[in-house]
Specification:
alpha/beta, Chemotaxis Receptor Methyltransferase Cher, domain 1, Rossmann fold, 2 domains, 10 helices, 40% helix, binds S-adenosylmethionine
Length: 298
Amino acid sequence: MAQEAAMSEAGINPVLTDHEARELRLLIEQRSGIVFDESRERFLTSRVLEQMERKGLTYGAELLRLVRCSNVEFDSMLERLLTQETSFLRYPALFSAFQQHVLPDLQERKLRDRDHALRILSAGCASGEEPYSIALSVCEAVGPRAELEASIMATDISHEALERAERGVYGRRVLANLSSAQISNYFSKVEDSYEVKPQLRSMVKFAPMNLAQLMYLGRFDCIFCMNVMIYFGAELRSNLIQSFHRYLEPGGYLFLGHAESVANIPVKFNQTIMNGTRLLQKPLDQSACHIRAAGDGR
Ligand SMILES: C[S@@+](CC[C@H](N)C(=O)[O-])C[C@H]1O[C@@H](n2cnc3c(N)ncnc32)[C@H](O)[C@@H]1O
């Protein structure tokens, strides 16, 4: 059944047939890994109809032609379909385990090995709240005089989200999990908004990256990929977790969202529960990494 939007002010009444919607779903999954299953079908259709209206297109076939021929047009449509919900210290218990257990563990090993670089990846960073929360946690746990230089590489498929992240200016709502001391230490108040101070800003580098075409960016001590893979199919999820495992240093940590796990994926992570949070650590002993342990994962 063809889906139609209400007649717009511009007089356009876009129409998208089931076949066209299916073709779009396939194209989106091929290029971005994002799966629109039945539960998200209505969301996809309404956002696509809005995009057609914005572009002055009446027929779904016109949109399909446009997004197949032009990456710019594909990206513009995809921007309307991304879920970018996020906030500072989104999971407080996870960030406190990161501060109280993970960072002291990494700092101790780094200092022992005379390695001064702490490298962290935030993949699917949305508008920057996650990587800045990581930077804030590092500042609080490691302290300014520590012989450890932290750099956070933050990536996302969305250019619009990355622009907001670069700007680093936020409304009060996304700061709800921060204490007033954290807000005054790490943000400057600009009218009704809060701007990230240079101390955090200088620790984070933003870059576009599509996780469906993951590139090797070097080795990391921690990889955060939270609430991104829930939108992907099982095969891409499995491939990504195996890549993250390869890209982690021995003893490095992987952070996933609450609904994500490494269950049934042939990689070995040691799991500990800290402050009610599950920590996934790549074994320090490389030879253990290839063992597929029964009950590996959650
Ligand atoms: C719900 S947000 C998660 C933000 C943050 N990690 C958090 O947990 O608060 C999901 C993010 O994944 C990004 N994303 C979706 N598909 C992606 C892909 N193929 N490659 C990179 N980022 C992607 C979206 O643009 C969005 O910013």
